[in-house]
Amino acid sequence: SLAVLQALEDGLKKADADPSVKAVMICGENGKFSAGADIRGFSSPKRHGVALGPIVSLIESSEKPVVAAIEGVALGGGLEVALGCHYRIAHVKARMGLPEVTLGLLPGAEGTQRLPRLIGVPAALDMITTGKHIPATEALKLGLVDEVVEENTIEAAVRLANKV
Protein backbone atom coordinates (compact mmCIF):
# COMPACT_ATOMS: atom_id res chain seq x y z
CA SER A 1 0.00 0.00 0.00
CA LEU A 2 1.03 3.60 -0.37
CA ALA A 3 1.11 3.92 3.42
CA VAL A 4 3.63 1.06 3.73
CA LEU A 5 5.80 2.46 0.94
CA GLN A 6 5.74 5.91 2.54
CA ALA A 7 6.64 4.45 5.95
CA LEU A 8 9.55 2.53 4.41
CA GLU A 9 10.85 5.66 2.68
CA ASP A 10 10.47 7.83 5.78
CA GLY A 11 12.06 5.23 8.06
CA LEU A 12 15.03 4.65 5.76
CA LYS A 13 15.71 8.35 5.30
CA LYS A 14 15.44 8.95 9.04
CA ALA A 15 17.79 6.03 9.83
CA ASP A 16 20.33 7.14 7.22
CA ALA A 17 20.37 10.66 8.66
CA ASP A 18 20.73 9.53 12.30
CA PRO A 19 24.38 8.87 13.23
CA SER A 20 23.29 6.78 16.24
CA VAL A 21 21.63 4.23 13.91
CA LYS A 22 24.20 1.65 12.83
CA ALA A 23 21.97 -0.72 10.82
CA VAL A 24 18.35 -1.15 9.70
CA MET A 25 16.13 -4.23 9.94
CA ILE A 26 12.98 -4.58 7.83
CA CYS A 27 10.31 -7.05 8.88
CA GLY A 28 6.64 -7.66 8.31
CA GLU A 29 3.84 -7.96 10.79
CA ASN A 30 1.91 -10.95 12.16
CA GLY A 31 4.40 -13.52 10.88
CA LYS A 32 4.41 -12.37 7.24
CA PHE A 33 7.12 -10.34 5.53
CA SER A 34 5.05 -9.19 2.53
CA ALA A 35 2.80 -10.80 -0.05
CA GLY A 36 3.47 -7.89 -2.41
CA ALA A 37 1.17 -5.36 -3.97
CA ASP A 38 -2.59 -5.49 -3.92
CA ILE A 39 -3.39 -6.16 -7.59
CA ARG A 40 -6.76 -4.43 -7.25
CA GLY A 41 -4.81 -1.17 -7.22
CA PHE A 42 -3.34 -1.87 -10.66
CA SER A 43 -6.59 -0.97 -12.40
CA SER A 44 -7.21 2.21 -10.44
CA PRO A 45 -6.33 5.64 -11.85
CA LYS A 46 -2.66 6.61 -11.68
CA ARG A 47 -1.58 6.82 -8.06
CA HIS A 48 0.48 9.69 -6.77
CA GLY A 49 3.20 9.32 -4.19
CA VAL A 50 6.00 6.86 -3.71
CA ALA A 51 6.56 3.83 -5.94
CA LEU A 52 8.12 0.50 -5.02
CA GLY A 53 11.08 0.62 -7.45
CA PRO A 54 12.59 3.81 -6.00
CA ILE A 55 12.05 2.50 -2.44
CA VAL A 56 13.95 -0.72 -3.26
CA SER A 57 16.74 1.39 -4.78
CA LEU A 58 16.78 3.54 -1.64
CA ILE A 59 17.19 0.40 0.49
CA GLU A 60 19.97 -0.89 -1.75
CA SER A 61 21.85 2.42 -1.74
CA SER A 62 21.76 2.84 2.05
CA GLU A 63 25.23 3.31 3.48
CA LYS A 64 24.07 1.44 6.59
CA PRO A 65 23.52 -2.32 6.44
CA VAL A 66 19.87 -3.24 5.83
CA VAL A 67 18.72 -6.71 6.91
CA ALA A 68 15.42 -8.32 5.87
CA ALA A 69 13.79 -10.60 8.47
CA ILE A 70 11.59 -12.81 6.30
CA GLU A 71 8.75 -14.72 7.95
CA GLY A 72 5.78 -16.32 6.23
CA VAL A 73 6.01 -15.11 2.65
CA ALA A 74 8.07 -12.67 0.61
CA LEU A 75 6.24 -12.63 -2.68
CA GLY A 76 6.25 -10.21 -5.61
CA GLY A 77 7.01 -6.72 -4.37
CA GLY A 78 7.76 -8.19 -0.94
CA LEU A 79 10.59 -10.26 -2.39
CA GLU A 80 11.76 -7.23 -4.36
CA VAL A 81 12.03 -5.29 -1.07
CA ALA A 82 14.08 -8.15 0.39
CA LEU A 83 16.28 -8.23 -2.73
CA GLY A 84 17.14 -4.57 -2.13
CA CYS A 85 18.37 -5.37 1.38
CA HIS A 86 22.05 -6.10 1.92
CA TYR A 87 21.31 -9.24 3.97
CA ARG A 88 18.33 -11.58 4.23
CA ILE A 89 17.43 -13.94 7.07
CA ALA A 90 14.46 -16.26 6.62
CA HIS A 91 12.47 -18.43 8.99
CA VAL A 92 12.66 -22.08 8.00
CA LYS A 93 8.94 -22.03 7.11
CA ALA A 94 9.19 -18.93 4.89
CA ARG A 95 8.49 -19.05 1.16
CA MET A 96 9.70 -16.66 -1.52
CA GLY A 97 8.78 -16.03 -5.13
CA LEU A 98 7.76 -13.68 -7.92
CA PRO A 99 4.26 -14.97 -8.78
CA GLU A 100 3.25 -12.01 -10.99
CA VAL A 101 3.78 -14.03 -14.16
CA THR A 102 0.80 -16.20 -13.25
CA LEU A 103 -1.29 -13.03 -13.67
CA GLY A 104 0.40 -12.08 -16.95
CA LEU A 105 2.68 -9.48 -15.33
CA LEU A 106 6.43 -9.12 -14.92
CA PRO A 107 7.97 -8.08 -11.60
CA GLY A 108 7.99 -4.30 -11.74
CA ALA A 109 10.47 -3.16 -9.09
CA GLU A 110 13.64 -4.50 -10.69
CA GLY A 111 13.26 -8.03 -9.32
CA THR A 112 14.10 -9.26 -12.81
CA GLN A 113 17.50 -7.57 -12.48
CA ARG A 114 18.33 -8.14 -8.83
CA LEU A 115 17.35 -11.81 -8.61
CA PRO A 116 19.69 -13.02 -11.41
CA ARG A 117 22.57 -11.01 -9.91
CA LEU A 118 22.02 -12.77 -6.61
CA ILE A 119 21.26 -16.38 -7.57
CA GLY A 120 22.38 -16.63 -11.20
CA VAL A 121 20.46 -16.50 -14.45
CA PRO A 122 19.19 -20.12 -14.70
CA ALA A 123 17.62 -20.23 -11.22
CA ALA A 124 16.27 -16.68 -11.53
CA LEU A 125 14.72 -17.38 -14.95
CA ASP A 126 12.98 -20.42 -13.51
CA MET A 127 11.53 -18.40 -10.63
CA ILE A 128 10.56 -15.41 -12.79
CA THR A 129 8.97 -17.36 -15.65
CA THR A 130 7.11 -19.98 -13.59
CA GLY A 131 6.08 -17.86 -10.60
CA LYS A 132 6.97 -20.75 -8.29
CA HIS A 133 7.45 -20.15 -4.59
CA ILE A 134 10.57 -21.65 -3.07
CA PRO A 135 11.06 -22.67 0.56
CA ALA A 136 13.68 -20.98 2.73
CA THR A 137 16.00 -24.00 2.63
CA GLU A 138 16.12 -23.85 -1.18
CA ALA A 139 16.56 -20.07 -1.04
CA LEU A 140 19.61 -20.63 1.19
CA LYS A 141 21.12 -23.14 -1.25
CA LEU A 142 20.59 -20.69 -4.13
CA GLY A 143 22.11 -17.77 -2.20
CA LEU A 144 18.85 -15.84 -2.04
CA VAL A 145 19.04 -15.69 1.77
CA ASP A 146 22.10 -15.55 3.98
CA GLU A 147 20.72 -17.57 6.86
CA VAL A 148 17.72 -19.75 7.73
CA VAL A 149 16.59 -19.92 11.36
CA GLU A 150 14.02 -21.88 13.34
CA GLU A 151 13.98 -19.29 16.10
CA ASN A 152 12.73 -15.72 16.21
CA THR A 153 13.67 -14.24 12.83
CA ILE A 154 13.65 -10.66 14.07
CA GLU A 155 16.10 -11.43 16.88
CA ALA A 156 18.36 -13.28 14.41
CA ALA A 157 18.24 -10.31 12.02
CA VAL A 158 19.13 -7.89 14.82
CA ARG A 159 22.08 -10.13 15.79
CA LEU A 160 23.29 -10.15 12.18
CA ALA A 161 22.83 -6.38 11.89
CA ASN A 162 24.87 -5.87 15.06
CA LYS A 163 27.57 -8.19 13.74
CA VAL A 164 27.93 -6.46 10.36
TrEMBL record:
<dbReference type="Pfam" id="PF00378">
    <property type="entry name" value="ECH_1"/>
</dbReference>
<dbReference type="InterPro" id="IPR029045">
    <property type="entry name" value="ClpP/crotonase-like_dom_sf"/>
</dbReference>
<protein>
    <recommendedName>
        <fullName>Peroxisomal bifunctional enzyme</fullName>
    </recommendedName>
</protein>
<keyword id="KW-0511">Multifunctional enzyme</keyword>
<comment type="similarity">
    <text>Belongs to the enoyl-CoA hydratase/isomerase family.</text>
</comment>
<dbReference type="GO" id="GO:0004165">
    <property type="term" value="F:delta(3)-delta(2)-enoyl-CoA isomerase activity"/>
</dbReference>
<dbReference type="GO" id="GO:0005777">
    <property type="term" value="C:peroxisome"/>
</dbReference>
<dbReference type="InterPro" id="IPR001753">
    <property type="entry name" value="Enoyl-CoA_hydra/iso"/>
</dbReference>
<comment type="similarity">
    <text>In the C-terminal section; belongs to the 3-hydroxyacyl-CoA dehydrogenase family.</text>
</comment>
<dbReference type="InterPro" id="IPR018376">
    <property type="entry name" value="Enoyl-CoA_hyd/isom_CS"/>
</dbReference>
<dbReference type="GO" id="GO:0006635">
    <property type="term" value="P:fatty acid beta-oxidation"/>
</dbReference>
<keyword id="KW-0413">Isomerase</keyword>
<dbReference type="GO" id="GO:0003857">
    <property type="term" value="F:(3S)-3-hydroxyacyl-CoA dehydrogenase (NAD+) activity"/>
</dbReference>
<keyword id="KW-0456">Lyase</keyword>
<dbReference type="GO" id="GO:0004300">
    <property type="term" value="F:enoyl-CoA hydratase activity"/>
</dbReference>
